[in-house]
Amino acid sequence: MALLVAAGQGSRAGGNVPKQFRTVAGKAVLAHAFDALAMCDEIDAIFVVVGPEQEEEARRLLIHRPVAAFIAGGADRRGSVRAGLEHIAQIGGAGEVLIHDAARPFLPPGIVARLVEALKGAAGAVPVLPIADTLVTDDGGVAGATVDRSCLRRVQTPQGFRFEAIWSAHQLWDSPHEATDDAQMLQVRGHDVKLVRGDERLFKLTYPDDFQKAETLFASGRR
Ligand code: CTP
Ligand code: MG
């Protein structure tokens, strides 16, 4: 099963509506993300987390699609994921869950299969990419140490988890700091999180320019 989180405001992306409701290549970003998950044989149910005032719009954009349930999200991403997991737990969900950002319209083939394969030997798995740019510390406006980037990775979604492990990690999370992602919460509980190969096309719409990038990618037919 999959949990698609779509309850954010998209403040960095600007625009009149949250980014997941905007149109790219003739279709809402949320619908692109949903349809890509729905194409995967490994995924049997997709739960969608939306803001309390956004459910009507989400239902309209996902009309005629087999949404397992719409769930009211939280004030931050962690709260939204937690609400989704809680719903799944209440209906007796088990097995594996993929947690995915609705703000990622592209899900290249192979990603989900790699995650599911990795989950045979670990409680969590995430797609990652290397870093191309040189990394340097900012020492008050002056370049400080150059950081060795060879062992650093950028983490994408979907992230795959054994349901019981990630649900328990969310319930136990008590750090005053925001968790940057779900895999981090699993690691805190002592679980291994496997790394699988990610894909540049899986990028997240974050800033205004990212929409043009997405249009170009769809137009190029590289999906
Ligand atoms: N998300 C969510 N609930 C929140 C915040 C974020 O479900 N309270 C979702 C977003 O809808 C998005 C994903 O988490 O699909 C990744 O978050 P991000 O890119 O940060 O989206 P926003 O929080 O919407 O954007 P911003 O931080 O720029 O406001
Ligand atoms: Mg955010």
From TrEMBL:
It comes from the Bacteria. Keywords: Isoprene biosynthesis, Lyase, Metal-binding, Multifunctional enzyme, Nucleotidyltransferase, Transferase. The record marks R149, K204 as: Positions MEP for the nucleophilic attack. The record marks R12, K19 as: Transition state stabilizer. Its EC number is 2.7.7.60, 4.6.1.12. One of its GO terms (molecular function) is 2-C-methyl-D-erythritol 4-phosphate cytidylyltransferase activity. Residues 1-223 are annotated as: 2-C-methyl-D-erythritol 4-phosphate cytidylyltransferase. GO terms for biological process: isopentenyl diphosphate biosynthetic process, methylerythritol 4-phosphate pathway; terpenoid biosynthetic process. Its cofactor is a divalent metal cation. It catalyses: 4-CDP-2-C-methyl-D-erythritol 2-phosphate = 2-C-methyl-D-erythritol 2,4-cyclic diphosphate + CMP; 2-C-methyl-D-erythritol 4-phosphate + CTP + H(+) = 4-CDP-2-C-methyl-D-erythritol + diphosphate. Pathway: Isoprenoid biosynthesis; isopentenyl diphosphate biosynthesis via DXP pathway; isopentenyl diphosphate from 1-deoxy-D-xylulose 5-phosphate: step 4/6; Isoprenoid biosynthesis; isopentenyl diphosphate biosynthesis via DXP pathway; isopentenyl diphosphate from 1-deoxy-D-xylulose 5-phosphate: step 2/6. Bifunctional enzyme that catalyzes the formation of 4-diphosphocytidyl-2-C-methyl-D-erythritol from CTP and 2-C-methyl-D-erythritol 4-phosphate (MEP) (IspD), and catalyzes the conversion of 4-diphosphocytidyl-2-C-methyl-D-erythritol 2-phosphate (CDP-ME2P) to 2-C-methyl-D-erythritol 2,4-cyclodiphosphate (ME-CPP) with a corresponding release of cytidine 5-monophosphate (CMP) (IspF). In the N-terminal section; belongs to the IspD/TarI cytidylyltransferase family. IspD subfamily. Belongs to the IspD/TarI cytidylyltransferase family. IspD subfamily. This is Bifunctional enzyme IspD/IspF. It comes from Sphingobium baderi LL03. The lineage of its organism: Bacteria, Pseudomonadati, Pseudomonadota, Alphaproteobacteria, Sphingomonadales. The gene is ispDF. The chain holds residues 1 to 223 of 383 of the full protein.
